[in-house]
Amino acid sequence: MRAEQSILDLPHDADPDPDELVRAAMRWHFSPDTGSPFWLARAASLDFDPLSDVKTYDDLTLFPNVAAELRDVPAADLVPRGYGDRPDIVGVFESGGTTGAPKRVVCPSDWLAKLVDWSNRNLDVHGFPRGADWLGITPSGPHLVGEIFRRSALTHGRYGFQVDLDPRWVKRLIKDGKGTQADAYAEHVIDQAAHILRTQPIGVLTVTPPLLARIAQREELVELVNEKVRAIRWGGTQMDTDTAELYRTEIFPDATLYGHYGSTMILGIAGQRHGTQPGEPCVFDTFSPYITFQVVDPVSGGPVAYGERGQVVMHHVSKALLLPNNLERDTAVRVPAPEGRIGDSAADIAPVERFEDEAVIEGVY
Amino acid sequence: MEPTAQSPGLPLIDALGPSGPYRTHRRQTIPGVTGAPVAELSLAPELYVNRTMKALREAAPPPAEERSAMLARAAGLFGSAVLGGMTLQEYESAVTRVSGVPLTAVRTATRVLSERVGQAWSSAHQARPRGAVADRHDPLVRSGQAVWARRGQVLAVHVPGNYPGTHGYWPEALALGYRAAVRPSRREPFTAQRLVLALHEAGFDGDQVALLPCGHEAADVLVRGADLAYGGDEIIRRYADDPGVLSLRPGRSKILLTADTDWREHLDMVVDSVGRNGGTGCVNTTAVLVEGDPAPVAAAIAERLAARPSLPPDDPKACLPVQQTDAARTLERHVLERARGTRAWLGGTGFVDELGDGSAVLRPTVHQVESPDAPQVGAEFPFPCVWVAPWSRTDHGVAPLRDTLVLTAVTQDEALIDALADEPTISNLYIGDTATHWHRPGLPHDGYLGEFLMRTATMVRL
Q1: Which of A92, B220, B224, B252 suits A6 as a labelling partner, its CA being 20 to 30 A distant?
Q2: pLDDT, tens digit, for every residue of A346-362?
Q3: In this structure, are B261 and B207 located in the same domain?
Q4: Are the beta carbons of B424 and B447 closer than 8 angstroms?
Q5: HEC assignment per residue over B256-269
Q6: Which residue from A263, A261, A265 is spatially nearest to A104, judged by alpha carbons?
């Protein structure tokens, strides 16, 4: 038991063997002493034995995608018993609810510390200044991204200033055809950020692409960002290559632009690869072997060729959570993971394609 | 709509903004009617469109007399210069290859377009109320005067790619001091590109007129970022109820032949109205209403149109439009469905004639319907497709002639002519032997564009 725990407890830069990690995780999540009530109960309905049949990382594909069940499971049932009677939990976090009711996960503090350590090292590689004050214009509330912002600001930076953002309300307004109200809400959010930018020495900005576009629409804010902000971390929705290039070359030429691609369902984020050539789509590398992606053909489920677009499947395997084979809504271009990492890296993230119908429109215009 | 990888060798159409040409990584391939790619179009992201709209709004228009001279210069350049690496002939050939409009019709359209741009200043001012002066510096303002003033500063232009001539009108907005953001059609982007290049070459800067090829989301930004919008594509249709949006309406142009005339004398005009320029325009006749028996008229039109040859659009003798075979077949299914219950004189079992290279000719169709109230009378398609209906002064009157862009009425009945002239939903009325596609610069098309762009205001400066 001690040896198993030790591989699950390694620091962020320890580089454990992925297959060993998977075996240790199976013992942790499927032993009555340490597993979560959810997985211990769910094991009975699996047509394989996780303890004897899941030996390698590739065997994770035996698991069904249980993400949908996270809409209804009592959160407490998701906490591995191995964390003890009074587990050190950061919070219960929810997905954005884009595709139905939100899904829920529980985040223990040891995992979040490991993730933020890994993320902070990425920020160093991309040249984020240490000790700066951060401004976060991101969802907070039940979403993990808000917590990651606070931890990053406190550990990599100095103070974290936050503006609240409720993405579900925006989605609801847009869905109900109340586009002007959604606009007004977004401008309200930017107004609050503007006040912080004017009065505080903000060195790092964390923001979503649509809100960054609104900042770019206000001359005063463009000047403030160029004067103060050294690095911009974006995430939440995709940013296309042309837009990123406009920011880098014309609008915020002196700031570092760095993207995140995350999901509450992986309890974390993937970070933009450093050193991609200008004009190339940004590539997201995962926190392997704990968080891994596969880019697959949505019909066959098999991997697409490198350089081809497919749908993103996410896996999370750690002491905190086991959630393999979660098929995400997004598509991405499959890119080889960095040397020594497993799974795929993902480039040029885009929502699942919409199809245009081919109805004939009468009239010649 | 997927972005495509760069294909070497294809001409690339850049956005043209305030700081010059802008080339994107996200592109769209523009296929010809055979399906083979003809060009690649840069698709500008929303952020670029937004910034360009802002620059257009902040720019001051050149003085009025310069605008007039620059438009005249642009007209000459459009009609003769090498622009975007293309001669006029190369440009016309590219338009034919992607739109399938016969080359001869494209040549006519580009000549007319050039003429219209050259006269944009005077055409625009035809719309000015006679009580209003053009400029607040006019001395008449000293004693109190109506002044013709802009309703806004920036016009979004979304004209479709069915026929290059549709670009002939919006340069009037430049004459009136508007800045224009033009989204080229993704079916035929060459005309918009050539026109904007000519305007730039003639002295309009990138913050006066911009070319903004883009996807749907950015196209919305383009409309929302402008004061007024004009056009007829799918984006404009979504905003059609907005008073700041002028939507090009389907033409539903018609010909009325009353019993006091001999229709045989006007057959040339009728056939020409249906089929000129490939029958792709809103001013091509959609329906012919006949007082008396429509059958002989339908038969005669069908006989004439049936003789038109099926040729590739770049053949000098081509006179019928061509489309990719799949699109042509989709259209054919739709039209056949629409024609159910009518009497077919031509094209009753289909009208698609495949050329064997992936493209197909849309051959003419002639259908006789039972009544001028038949729903088919309003069904307009981008090829020579005409519905022939019986009409009676007493049974039907003006009602079936409503909602018409151009009505040619061949009649001696002055009371009827009065009634037609008084009908507000008939945009243009031609009496006698004039084809529905007849037009001259300076005359309104669907009203003057100036009626939409301008307002009058009282001004006094004592």
Answers
A1: A92
A2: 999 987 654 444 567 67
A3: no
A4: no
A5: EECCCCCHHHHHHH
A6: A265
Residues B281 and B353 in one domain: yes
Rounded Cα gap, residues B66 and A275, in angstroms: 50
Residues B232 and B262 in one domain: no
Contacts of B54 in chain A (CB under 8 A): 217
**Domain end among B248, B272, B305:** B248
Claim to verify: residue B276 and residue B289 sit in the same structural domain: yes
Q: Which of A246, A247, A362 sits opposite B250 (nearest CB)?
A: A362
Enumerate residues 188 to 247 of chain A having a beta carbon within 8 A of any beta carbon in chain B: 213, 216-217, 240-243, 245-247
- Classify residue A181 as exposed, middle or buried by CB count within 10 Å of its CB (0-12, 13-18, 19+): middle
The DSSP secondary-structure symbol of B457 reads: E
ipTM topping 0.90:
no
Using the structure block, give the residue that is written with the tokens 């039940």: A142
> What's the CATH code of the domain at B174?
3.40.605.10
CA distance B198 to B204: 9
DSSP one-letter code for A133: E
Show the tokens assigned to B267: 């057959």
CA–CA gap between residue B366 and residue B345 (Å, rounded): 5
Task: Looking at the structure, tell me whether residues B95 and B70 fall in a common domain.
Answer: yes
**Among the three residues B228, B248, B268, which one is the final residue of a domain in this structure?**
B248
Q: How many CA atoms lie within 13 A of A55 on its CB side?
A: 2
Answer whether B50 sits within 8 Å of A242, measured CB to CB. no
CATH code for position B376: 3.40.309.10
Residue B117 within any structural domain of the chain: yes
Please give the torsion angle defined by the CA atoms of residues B439, B441, B447 and B453, in that order, rounded to the nearest 10 degrees.
Answer: 160
Domain-located, residue B261:
yes
Co-location of B279 and B153 in the same domain: no
Partner-chain residue, chosen from A240, A358, A365, that has the shortest CB–CB distance to B232: A365
Q: Does residue B221 sit in the same domain as residue B113?
A: yes
Look at residue B350 and tell me if it is in a domain. yes
Whole-structure pTM over 0.80, yes or no? yes
Judgement on whether residues B289 and B355 belong to the same structural domain of the protein: yes
- Orientation angle between helical segments A179-199 and A167-175, nearest 10 degrees: 150
Token pair in block for residue A97 = 């609810």
Which chain B residues are Cβ-neighbours of A362 within 8 angstroms? 250, 378-381
Give residue B298's domain range.
253-431
| Each residue's pLDDT expressed in tens, for chain B with a length of 462 residues | 344 444 567 999 999 999 999 999 999 999 999 999 999 999 999 999 999 999 999 999 999 999 999 999 999 999 999 999 999 999 999 999 999 999 999 999 999 999 999 999 999 999 999 999 998 889 999 999 999 999 999 999 999 888 899 999 999 999 999 999 999 999 999 999 999 999 999 999 999 999 999 999 899 999 999 999 999 888 888 888 899 999 988 899 999 999 999 999 999 999 999 999 999 999 999 999 999 999 999 999 999 999 999 999 999 999 999 999 999 999 999 999 999 999 999 999 999 999 999 999 999 999 999 999 999 999 999 999 999 999 999 999 999 999 999 999 999 999 999 999 999 999 999 999 999 999 988 899 999 999 999 999 999 988
Long-range contacts (CB closer than 8 Å, 24 or more residues apart) made by A296-303: A298/A327, A303/A334, A303/A344
Place of tokens 């697959």: A296
B458 CA: distance to closest CA in chain A (Å): 34
B322 domain-assigned: yes
Q: How does pLDDT run across A81-103, given as a tens digit for each residue?
A: 999 999 999 999 998 777 778 99
